[in-house]
Amino acid sequence: MIRRVLIIMGAILISAGSIGQTAKSQMKAGKAFVKAGNQMEALSSYTKAIELDPNLTDAYVARAQIYESMKNYKEAIADYDRATAIEPKEFDWPNISGRLNVEAGQYEEAVVSLRKALQLKGKDLDATNYLVTALIGLKRYDEAITEADRALVLKKTPVNYYNRGRIYYLTRNFGLSEGDFRKALDDNPKYLEATVGLAQSLYEQKKYVQALGVANDALKLSENDRQALLVRARVYHQQKDYMSALTDMARILTLYPDAADIGEMYFYRATLAREFNQHTTAIADLNHAISLGNASPETYYLRGVCYEDIFQKEKATADYLTFIGMTAGNKELADKNDLAHKRVFDLNKESDKPTLTFTDPVEREKGTLDIIKGVEKIELRGKVIDESAVKYMTINGKRIELMDGVVEKNNTFTIPFEPGEQMDIVFEVSDVYDNVMNQRYVIRRTEIDPPVIYMMNPMASDNGELFIERNAQFQYFEGTINDESLIASVTIDGVNAGFNPSVFNPTFSANIDLLNKDAISVVVTDILGNVATKKFTINRDAAAMFENNPMGKTWLVFIENSEYKSLSSLQGPSRDVTMMRNALANYQIHNIIHKKNMTHDQMQRFFAIELRDFVLKNHVSSLIIWYAGHGKYYSNTGTGYWIPVDGTRDDEFSYFNTDMLKGALQPYQNSVNHLLIVTDACEAGPSFFLAMRSSDNVKADCHDWKVSKARSAQVLSSAGYELAVDNSTFTSIFAKSLLDCPMTCISIDEIAQQVIKGVGQTASQKPRFGQLQGFKHEGGTFFFMKKTD
Fold it and tell me: Distance (Å, rounded) from C-alpha 46 to C-alpha 52?
């Protein structure tokens, strides 16, 4: 130990003192480090020696030897090649470089180095054998045979006979390979590789009994030899001994799971399993082979065969199609490709006729095509639906050219057509199995009138003007459409408007950004392709008349629920809303939002999100919410509900809780100065009962800023606990109060007094009026302000 430490210290001292000294001293230090087992320091010293003397061969060789011991063949080869360049007549350096290149699998480089070595020393058995190995690796078998013969001339050894026998085997000269392997075994009966090679040569010559005996001999030498097990499995296969063959393959797959050709081994075992009628086992092996990646086309073909064997048509078809795609243009597999095509064809044979659907014109009635009057040329668009590929299509007996004569499954088509005076059209479609569909379609001429557009909110003037608030960026638009046909699309300045495409003359609505716009265009297209475009000009100056309104920007929301699914439908809400619209026509309402037949989810989303965003973005100062429809009050819990159109009788969870309404309105408090809720809903009034107070019977003055500017949050509810009726006295009196008002304004207090007086025949029917519990109410009230000239 002390001696080793002294050697290391000496090497360190030599290295440390060698700066500016000779390469020779660095070589000496390197040898000391090698002797001490310190390879990294030795590499450093040899590298410094090379830097000091780039032509020092010994330094390159010494460093190469260290790299070789570290299995760093790349650097080792580079150093031996540099040594060769310096001393080109030295045999050892190209010889060692060639050997290392063979071990690294770099056969081209190996051949160059080994031929250079053999030029220097014409007869060297080791160099010749390595050259044979490199040439075999490059599949340059003619050159390999020449070199193998030269090796045998030098010395007839078992290895040399084996090498030549291997070349004969690889070039399918199995008789010659058998002879050489036997000669190798004559001198060395326990030569495993030669024994395996002999078994393989006998197998290829179909000498199965002899091959089996020799394979067993090989397995006696090495019981788990992979090649011996494989050749024996192949012999068992030829002898139809599937159990023994599968047993040997199982050993190979277990013992050599990381072999480069493991996928091929799974494929071969699958072949055995399939022939042994173990189809699911075969499929499992093929799945494994595919999962490894780079599976051969035959793997998919064989799996397709296995799936077909167990009647899984779809999976078999998919694998055959994969095989077909992978082997397109492959001449070696052309016959099998044709067979795969035939298998796919036979597997998918069916007897169903094709069907035909049209997308333009749409077949709204079976067997009828609507074509616009006066059109001379159109394009028929549709889809052929069939489980199989389409063979041909004809129109009125005229064959239509389709893609390469065949339409893929569920293919769409576009066909020019001149209807002329024809009253019908006949289509014939056949699939590749000669299932023929023959269908006659009646041609029906349709209207060509464009839709008529009406803008209702905001109401458009006769000359198409829309009165929009001067500083408003976003505007909610609502309108109606009149047309003989259903509507296909509605856009406002390119934005899709919401409408019901399944009803005639629908309403439409959209929220539009009006920034930097002085007009909007509404485009409506019906299902027949008739298009109407209407331009509306935006008048912001007229909105100035609202600026003196003490209520500020005022919005009104109508919730009209009448078409109930589980409860009785109502006619009254629609009439009530119309009545209120007419009554408010002369009052300053900046925007009216009219929602019809809302479901529970729609009501929840509208109040919690949509209305909130509208109010906050548009800086609404006063907000009226008018609900007309069914309601419900549970006296035991003191909870009131508005009933959505999808509400279910006696199902409290399907109703819209008025407490939920109040919760959704809470974010409005800081921006909305006046909040008024009017509920014309049966049984819903008591939901606000705890928040009620009696009217003061004092006619408030809209010019009294203390009242008009102070915050208010008020509720006027129609009834107590009675069922809904279609003729609402509540709404009639409310509307009449507005229409009969001779003043420039009227407060909700005064309207409430007239409604309570007119409706309140009994205590249970008496409307309720007061402040909304939980909201800021500072003594103000809501005024309906008449429009001024």
Answer: 10
